[in-house]
Specification:
There is one protein chain. This protein is α/β, with parallel strands linked by helices. The protein has one domain: Rossmann fold, CATH 3.40.50. The chain is built from ten helices and seven strands. It has a seven-stranded mixed sheet with strand order 3-2-1-4-5-7-6, sandwiched between helices. Helix 2 crosses helix 9 (193-203). The protein starts with 11 loop residues before the first helix and ends with a strand. The structure holds S-adenosylmethionine. S-adenosylmethionine binds at residues 7-9, 11, 13-14, 25, 52-55, 58, 74-76, 79, 99-101, 116-119.
Length: 232
Amino acid sequence: MVEIAPGAVPSPNIWNSPSVYEIENRAVDPDGTIEAAMRSIAPWAGRTVLDLGCGTGFHLPRFAAEAARVVGVEPHAGLAAAARRRVRDLPDVTVRVGAAQALPLPDASVDVVHVRWAYFFGPGCEPGLAELDRVVRRGGTVFIVDNDATRSTFGGWFRRGLPSYDPAAVERFWTRRGFQREPLMIRWEFENRADLSAVLRIEFPERLAAEFEREHRGLTVDYAVNLWWRHN
Ligand SMILES: C[S@@+](CC[C@H](N)C(=O)[O-])C[C@H]1O[C@@H](n2cnc3c(N)ncnc32)[C@H](O)[C@@H]1O
């Protein structure tokens, strides 16, 4: 049995298919729109970055290129081990097993937090937000990357996969907690249809994945995201 820290939100896409999730990560946002938006709000050069719910650590080397120190926290011990292997030659990066609700980090030890499609999905994530209040230094910044289900091809697919999802409730949740929304349009850009097909099948049930594959031509999928952010 793989060790998983208490409170982890089941994430079958990356837990069951990390190699396909790697293909997905390579397809996401080839122009670096999300990173550019983050950098314009809170640059991380010379600072300490926490990548929370870091999975196999895809984004850790990118932050390490500029940050003084990078910490990845991931509740799935097998994925955390993969993240450690990815950054073994980067001395300023560490990876810890843990969950958002009980961060294995000291008080006031982080400047910039990046949470991409992990745990912070609106109502219910208050314990993790309290932990971020504890570990983020005064003047630090928290970034949450999440889907914008109100627009784009991917947003439409997301709503069809999760009809009960209420984007207005999610927006109310974040704005009441002092977060600002940066709406961004990114894209998935695949090298071939087989990759698109495989990624659709880790994100959606087979019936929907097959429908989307039939309906959608080409290798590009327009994808709206919300970058929620708050200075502490
Ligand atoms: C869809 S994956 C995204 C991984 C990574 N952020 C990326 O973009 O490659 C979601 C990740 O959130 C992690 N996760 C689930 N529950 C969590 C929690 N309570 N605290 C922190 N991370 C969590 C999962 O283990 C998984 O690695």
